[in-house]
Amino acid sequence: MSVDTPRDATQMPPQSAYSALTGIELISVTPEEVICRMPVTEKLTNRNGALHGGAIMTLADNAAGTCAFINIPASKSNTTIESKTNFLRGVRVGDVVTAHCVPLHSGRTTHVLQTTMTRSDGKTVAVTTQTHLILEWTD
């Protein structure tokens, strides 16, 4: 494998402890699309009893970070440098939110990714657009 060849799914590290804490599960990881799910529990709600916006953004960041990561060479890493979320509707406890992330731009130094999150009834909950900086990863 060339130093500049993007990773494949077998080279993906496991999910972070934070992702596990929020219950995020990776469903599918390809360079074209990342799909993950997050069950809505009491611990992820705001004071109104709906899924907290920060939890939605966590799901989006996980999906986009994974999508950027699979699209870059193993010698590099990535970090979110910009994130914008449009919140469209609430989600109740007991539901599951599914995130679909696709790359809009995959350049040498930045990637732009869009994540659409839906409830189990198929309605869109939120849409997040992120820019990720591609980093040389050295110790």
Automatic annotation (TrEMBL):
<dbReference type="InterPro" id="IPR003736">
    <property type="entry name" value="PAAI_dom"/>
</dbReference>
<dbReference type="GO" id="GO:0061522">
    <property type="term" value="F:1,4-dihydroxy-2-naphthoyl-CoA thioesterase activity"/>
</dbReference>
<protein>
    <submittedName>
        <fullName>Uncharacterized domain 1-containing protein</fullName>
    </submittedName>
</protein>
<dbReference type="InterPro" id="IPR029069">
    <property type="entry name" value="HotDog_dom_sf"/>
</dbReference>
<feature type="domain" description="Thioesterase">
    <location>
        <begin position="48"/>
        <end position="126"/>
    </location>
</feature>
<dbReference type="InterPro" id="IPR006683">
    <property type="entry name" value="Thioestr_dom"/>
</dbReference>
<keyword id="KW-0378">Hydrolase</keyword>
<dbReference type="GO" id="GO:0005829">
    <property type="term" value="C:cytosol"/>
</dbReference>
<comment type="similarity">
    <text>Belongs to the thioesterase PaaI family.</text>
</comment>
<dbReference type="Pfam" id="PF03061">
    <property type="entry name" value="4HBT"/>
</dbReference>
